[in-house]
Amino acid sequence: MLRLQNSESSLTVFGASNLHGWKVDAETQQGAISFNNLESCDISNLSLTVLTKSLKGVMPGMAETVSETLKSDEYKYVLFVLTKVENVTKKDNSVFELQALGDLTIAGTKRSVPIRFEVTIDDNKVKLEGRTILKMTDFNLTPPEALSGTVKAKDDVMLRFDARFAGSTLL
After folding, report:
1. What share of residues in the chain are helix, strand, coil (percent, to 5)?
2. CB 14 within 8 A of CB 168
3. How far apart are CA 129 and CA 116, in angstroms?
4. Distance of CA 97 to the CA centre of its chain
């Protein structure tokens, strides 16, 4: 089993409002990945966790807005657990593209989400890169407003991730 290397990984949430775009980055992530068969990129387990209060933005007040929206006093983590790999395409010797499903839990609401990502396997290191678009309302979240409702976040957000895993053994 390989563990997520927080300092080498990134997760960014991009969104928009009626006035401007915005983004927040996760400062604290954890996760693990293991394989049934490395050569065919047959993943047996994959989980990723993001500490909700670690999501920080460059705009003033962004961290507080995200924290309130995600109800982070009550729900400390966003959790993704891979449930099914639907398709694996080998792009070259060490790179695979996967279409999969996973359970994503945000603010206490769990939904099955489709996700496409690329897996690069190099020695005892694995890199997962991908993105997916979600609707806040699918997770019972109210898109935030600011300045007495003059600034309103749009429902769609895009998650982009680059998760790096390392450890002593891949199997």
Report:
1. 10, 65, 25
2. no
3. 9
4. 17
pTM above 0.85, yes or no: yes
Structure tokens at 103: 């359970």
- Over the stretch 85-99, which tens digit does the pLDDT of each residue have? 999 999 998 999 999
d(CA 37, CA 88): 12
Tokens read off for 97: 């593209």
Question: Between the CA of residue 152 and those of 36, 39, 137, 142, what are the distances in Å?
Answer: 45, 47, 14, 10
Torsion sign across C-alpha atoms 60, 63, 64, 69: positive
d(CA 102, CA 84): 7
Token representation of residue 40: 């065919």
Single out the residue of 16, 19, 6, 13 nearest to residue 57, CA to CA.
Answer: 13
